[in-house]
Design a protein that fits this description.
The protein is an alpha/beta fold and 385 residues long. The chain is built from 16 helices and 10 strands.
């Protein structure tokens, strides 16, 4: 749980701006119309190319000698990162463990939270500098009500693969009861919350099946409870993330029937946010993303290597997933090596949650999204292809 001072800060912020409705509160509403957004960012300039004297990267994804072209900040700048421990923040963990933040003159410490929404109040009141976590209705609601937060980069999304999926009881697959999306009609499906990123994927699932809300028996359950419920037959399917997907598959109870990359292609799952004070400090803010991108590129190099053990060790050290044997069975988080942010995806999710009553005052993306630090970081490193 976060320190008491963060909870107090949250109460103070709440007096200024009411939070979004509870993530677990049921609500109904139509999904946004139109095709799934493209996997590239919208409204943002393409990552600038490196200048003639810009740094290159090695084949392993790490920065080549000279990548840290600027001398470290002196004295080092302390940076508090709001961390929801998950595989999607692997780029941060790698940059921390391999000294990339230190090379930029940043003294980064991790402040752990059990939900991303809890990190929003301390971030808005400058008790945190940076936070990385799941896109959700509460985040947009806070921005819409005036909290001065900036979305500065994308972290993970549904690309070639995704760490979340629709898991269906193996019995229903083996019997032929579930063959295509329309076959999900009438099933008991578990979901963490409708105002989370997985909630947006649930709406896409309804679209693919041609369903209304009344066609699915929706059960709002935390991931551990959903895992148990599927094991004892209390639910038929669930939109889950790792390691719960791999656990159900490994136990023989469930089948990873449809990955989220198929259900909602290009969906922006997690993003990087800056607090107001840190966003006003151009050089440290740029250096943070420079070091982070080095970690994100190392992550992709490790994912594509023949031996992922070094990555698994880092993840086991920083996340609750301590069982090293489960990692090879997990679908990895799809982390963008350039921090690309899919703004179309953000807009579609906000429109959905506003239509369902989770957001009263939508965020103004012209104010909420600020990619200047990302563009500067990519220019320093050179874009990853």
């Amino acid at each position: 749980m976060p320190p008491l001072r963060y909870l107090i800060a949250g109460l103070l912020v709440a007096l200024l701006a009411a939070c979004a409705p509870s993530a677990g509160a049921p609500a109904s509403g139509a999904a946004p119309s139109g095709a799934a957004p493209a996997a590239t960012s919208a409204g943002a300039a393409a990552p600038p190319t490196a200048s003639a004297g810009g740094a290159a990267t090695t084949a392993s994804g790490g920065a080549a000698p000279g990548a840290a072209a600027h001398a470290p900040l002196s004295p080092p700048v302390a940076v508090k990162f709001g961390d929801l421990p998950a595989t999607s923040n692997a780029g941060v963990y790698i940059a921390l463990d391999r000294g990339y933040f230190q090379e930029e003159g940043l003294d980064v410490s991790l402040e752990t939270f059990d939900s991303f929404e809890r990190a929003i109040p301390p971030l808005a009141t400058n008790q945190l500098d940076v936070a990385g976590g799941g896109v959700n209705a509460g985040m947009f609601s806070a921005m819409g009500r005036g909290l001065p937060l900036k979305i500065v980069a994308g972290i993970s999304g549904n690309g070639a693969y995704s760490s979340s999926a629709l898991v269906v009881r193996k019995e229903l697959i083996d019997s032929g009861r579930v063959k295509d999306y329309p076959d999900l009609k009438g099933l008991r499906i578990a979901l963490l919350s409708k105002s989370s990123g997985l909630g947006a994927e649930y709406e896409r699932l309804l679209q693919k099946g041609g369903f209304t809300e009344n066609d699915i028996d929706l059960k709002l359950l935390p991931f551990p409870d959903a895992t148990v419920a599927m094991s004892n037959g209390a639910i038929d399917a669930g939109i889950l993330t790792e390691p719960f997907v791999a656990q159900l598959v490994r136990s023989g109870v469930g089948v990873r029937w449809k990955g989220a990359e198929e259900i909602y292609p290009g969906h922006q799952i997690t993003a990087m946010l800056y607090g107001p004070d840190f966003a006003g400090r151009q050089e440290p803010a740029t250096r943070f993303l420079t070091a982070y991108l080095r970690g994100a590129r190392d992550y992709n190099a490790l994912i594509n290597s023949s031996d992922r053990t070094p990555l698994y060790e880092i993840l086991a050290a920083h996340t609750p997933i301590k069982d090293m044997s489960i990692y090879p069975a997990m679908s990895p988080s799809n982390i963008d090596p350039n921090g690309t942010l899919n703004v179309d995806s953000l807009r579609a999710d906000q429109d959905l949650w506003a239509s369902e009553g989770f957001i009263e005052q939508p965020a103004d993306f012209a104010k909420a999204v600020d990619l200047q630090y990302l563009q500067a970081a990519v220019q320093r490193l050179g874009p990853e292809r």
